[in-house]
Design brief:
It is a single chain. This protein has 456 residues and is of the alpha/beta class. It has helices at residues 2-7, 9-34, 45-62, 73-99, 105-133, 150-157, 176-181, 193-205, 216-220, 244-280, 328-335, 343-349, 362-371, 388-392, 399-411, 415-429, 441-455; strands at 137-143, 163-170, 185-188, 209-212, 225-229, 232-236, 285-292, 296-303, 353-355, 384-386. The strands form four sheets. It has a four-stranded parallel sheet, with helices on both faces. A two-stranded antiparallel ribbon has the order 5-6. It starts with a helix and ends with a helix.
Length: 456
């Protein structure tokens, strides 16, 4: 069993997926036979069981709940809660069509809680089984400058169940290759392409696992395919943009989904507007010029979360953790990402899409491009309300790392990936890390105090 799990991790993924689907479906069917409407709802294979299994499989996959080897238990539970809710609602609609029976809310809630409890138990058990057999890989980190990689080291150590860092060594260290021989995995950070190639060749010869921190350029060419012209093999790379068909499908989804979302969210948006107005009497909305596809400028709409005219003295400044310019109401809105709701209007108008790179300000783009020229590639697609960088990264993730995720999104674009990112966004709403501010609290506090003094 131990050897099986070690050598066939992909099989483990599928076995866990089957188990999760079975747990969610079996509990629902049990409730269908014993709870719903005193058992008078027929359990028909075609009308109930098959749709439930399909919906469970789909939503558990879309939210990433199968990935027990990649995520922590709490992450899997949060995504599982949302996936089960969606699969149950979809299954109930199917049963409604076939049997003309609507479920009592108390019965539905009880069934849902039973499913969540069973799924949580399975996730915890499966994670313990995985950790019992799959010991963390002994890893060595190879870098050029040890002093500048602390943030990466801390993040790798956060996955102690997968990797155990046994050594952090400079590329120029005489013991480099001995350290690699003693490890099972090698992380390569801040090395030039030639140095990485040399280390990689040595690792491949010893059958070591390799983890490379890629450069933006390397991500842009990762989707290349082999094309032979006469007897010459070429790597053919597609343009970093979407096809016409992909753009049409994406736009149709944006129009329909944003219209429905605006209708459903309108009562909440009215309530938020009243709260902001009562808080300090200032304007409800905040407009700011941003850049979208093909460097086109537009005004992004948000609910105002900072004091009125917050950037009078500071100029264009990124928000920080515990930023004193943020109002009491604004802090709550940001924590739940509700300040982003007015951007549904931007999506409906066509300035933005549901999924894509976050819209940046012109002044920041110009600064980023100076150090990372590939940053301009983000403008090959429409800016998005959410994106891969938002669901995989944090608010304080470096611009270069966010760029890499944005480039991965563009390169691997598919409508299915868009839907998956939309589902994963729900997890972000419950993650405190995703709303962390960048460092700079002291600077913004001084600017805020100077602004208040200037007003007085």
């Amino acid at each position: 069993m131990k050897k099986f799990i070690k050598n066939f991790s992909r099989s483990l993924y599928y076995l866990n997926a089957i188990a999760q689907i079975a747990v969610v479906s079996s509990v629902f069917v049990f409730a269908l036979m014993n709870l719903f409407s005193s058992g008078n709802i027929p359990v028909d294979t075609h009308a109930t069981v098959v749709p439930l299994v399909i919906f469970s499989a789909l939503f558990l996959y879309m939210t990433g709940t199968y990935e027990i080897t990649q995520k922590r238990s709490i992450e899997l539970i949060v995504t599982g809660v949302f996936a089960v809710l969606l699969s149950d609602l979809a299954a109930i609609m199917i049963i409604r069509v076939y049997s003309f029976i609507w479920f009592d809310f108390a019965e539905f809630l009880l069934t849902y809680l039973m499913q969540i409890a069973a799924l949580c138990v399975w996730i915890i058990i499966s994670r313990h089984i995985y950790k019992a057999f799959k010991k963390p890989l002994r890893a060595v980190v190879v870098c050029y400058d040890i002093e500048n990689i602390d943030s990466y080291i801390n993040k790798i150590r956060g996955y102690s169940d997968k990797y155990e860092i046994t050594d952090i060594i400079s590329y120029n260290d005489a013991n480099l290759y001995y350290s690699i021989c003693q490890s099972e995995a090698v992380f390569m950070l801040d090395l030039s392409s030639k140095k990485r190639e040399k280390v990689a060749q040595y690792c491949l010869a010893l059958n070591k696992n390799i983890f490379i921190l890629p450069e933006p350029y390397e991500i842009t060419v990762r989707s290349c395919h082999l094309e032979q012209i006469d007897d010459i093999p070429f790597l053919s790379c597609k343009p970093m943009t979407l096809t016409l068909e992909e753009k049409i499908i994406k736009r149709l989804f944006d129009v329909v989904a944003s219209f429905v979302a605006l209708v459903l969210a309108s009562p909440l948006m009215i309530a938020i507007a009243i709260m902001i107005k009562r808080d300090d009497g200032g304007s409800v909305f905040y407009k700011q010029e941003r850049i979208t596809e093909n460097y086109r400028k537009f005004n992004v709409l948000k609910f105002r979360t900072m004091v009125q005219n917050a950037e009078e003295l500071s100029g264009a400044t990124l928000s920080t953790k515990d930023d004193p310019r943020i109002t009491k109401v604004g802090k709550k809105l940001r924590a739940m990402r509700l300040d982003e709701l007015p951007q549904l209007i931007n999506i409906f108008k066509g300035d933005m899409s549901f999924v894509g790179p976050r819209p940046e300000r012109d002044i920041f783009i110009q600064e980023y491009v100076k150090t990372v020229p590939e940053f301009i590639y983000r403008l090959n697609v429409k800016a998005g309300l959410t994106g891969l960088a938002q669901v995989r990264g944090k608010y304080n993730t470096t611009p270069q790392d966010k760029l890499k995720m944005d480039l991965l999104y563009i390169n691997d674009y598919s409508f299915l990936n868009d839907l998956k990112i939309c589902f994963l966004t729900v997890k972000v709403l419950f993650s405190k890390e995703s709303t962390e501010g960048i460092d700079g609290d002291v600077k913004n506090k001084e600017l805020f105090e100077a602004q208040q003094e200037n007003k007085n």
